[in-house]
Give the backbone structure.
Amino acid sequence: MDIDISDHSLNVFSALDSPVRIKIIQLLSERKMNVREISKELNLSSAITIMHLNKLEAAHIIDREKKGTQRISKLQVDKINISFPNQLYIPYKDWRIDLPIGQYTAYDVTPSCGLAGQDGFIGKVDNPSYFMDPDRYAAGMIWFSKGFVEYQVPNYLTDEQSLEMIEFSAELSSEFPFSNNVWPSDITVSLDGQEIGTWTSPGDFSDIRGRYTPDWVYNDMNQYGLLKSFRISKHGSFIDGQRSSDTLISDLDLTKNAWPLRFEVKDSSENVGGCTIFGKNFGNHNQGIKARFYYKDIVPQ
């Protein structure tokens, strides 16, 4: 079912705004049921149950069919897609990049640490010297217990353009030798020396295999991370839409050809649990560090 943000969809939103009706949907996801069966499960009278069923039927979430004297309810949809207004923001122009995670230009890391590619480890594990191995550009996963890796993000802005907002996304997790699904770590992200914010990863995940993780990676090694989004705007900085710092676009040096982007686990953090960055052909999201820069042309006065 596809709905939009309009008066025509109010019956759907209203139908879902009830714990009882949510429970009915859950029951009907398992099997078709008649009024008596639903009433018994909910410990409600038939009259009250029918009232709730009518609301769900009016919203076209369920359908009912007759079987003799009984009315059998069944789910009519298995997904509801909500379309928001297309233009929530001014339609800025933009440029995009997808940085390979091995393309860092500076680092200072502490073991456990290492790099991995499609066919195996790159260099020796737990030896920071190998973080400068020329083959690092082929890395699909890098990890370290403390310290940082830093990338250079190109600035394509011209004098006739005004930068309005920057968005980044990266698949991240903590770092524990092999893995630990409950291992919090405070990972700080900064651009041009200005902190975007700190995200606390809940763990270093190996409960299931990563969607793209190569077969050679052991089942009890870190398999995937969580895709996190970072934003710098004229109003502050945000992680997954939640305000994370007071850093503004205006705090960046817009005259630079590139800005340093850093992922860091500080000694002073409350949770020093390391950092793992997943790139293409690893984890659950087949990407490097994605960045999108929104700008508009400056209109001459």
